[in-house]
Amino acid sequence: MKKIFGLFLIAGMLVISACGSGAKEEAKTTDSTAVMQAPADSAAVVADTTTAPVK
After folding, report:
1. Which H helix or E strand runs over 13?
2. Cα separation of 7 and 5, whole Å?
3. Are the C-beta atoms of 39 and 45 separated by less than 8 Å?
4. What DSSP state is assigned to residue 42?
5. Half-sphere exposure (Cβ direction) of 37: Cα atoms closer than 13 Å
6. Does this model's pTM top 0.70?
7. Using one digit for the tens of pLDDT, what is the confidence trace for 18-53?
8. Is 36 left (phi over 0), alpha (psi -120 to 50) or beta?
C-alpha cells in the first residue's frame, strides 16, 4: 500500500511541475500616462490668464 501512495505522490508531483513550466507572455498594454502631442496649429492654444502668478 505504501508503494501505491508513493507512486501517486510522484505522479502528482510530475503533473504539478508540468503545469507550471510554460513560457509566460507579458500582456501588451498601452501606457495610460503617455504624453499627448501638441496641436499642429499653435494659434489654437490659448494661454490661461485667469489666475495670478504665485509669489
Report:
1. helix 2-19
2. 5
3. yes
4. G
5. 3
6. no
7. 776 566 666 666 656 666 666 666 556 666 677 777
8. beta
